[in-house]
Amino acid sequence: MIGKALFSLVLFFTVTTAPALAVGPEGVWLRASGTSKIKIFKCGSAYCGDLVWLKSPLKDIHNPDKAKRTRPLLGSRTVLGMKEDGKNAWKGKVYNAEDGKTYTGKMKLIDQNRLSLKGCVLGGLFCKGEEWARSK
Hints:
This protein is mostly beta strands.
């Protein structure tokens, strides 16, 4: 009887104290178009993202700052900055090098290998998004 009680207690303690799988947005993500990869990392209390791979290396030709239009996109531009906005969700700013504009952004971790990212205008009235895949 004591053996069963002790076994039950150990099993209960093991199950209730086992660490939960902690998966966040940190890592390298492949855009749906397959044209670039973004590395998401912790920066203070937020998450930031840098371009780390481009299928075709490009310059930041659409940047609103004319002095920055000749710089390479790769390694020179943080493309997102997000702060927590609920469970597995963040909001902040997203830079789109394809048009040189910065949008209000929303990011949500769908599961450990899929991330939803949206760029919005007019206070979130109009949003366009895509799903990114964790890069291996």
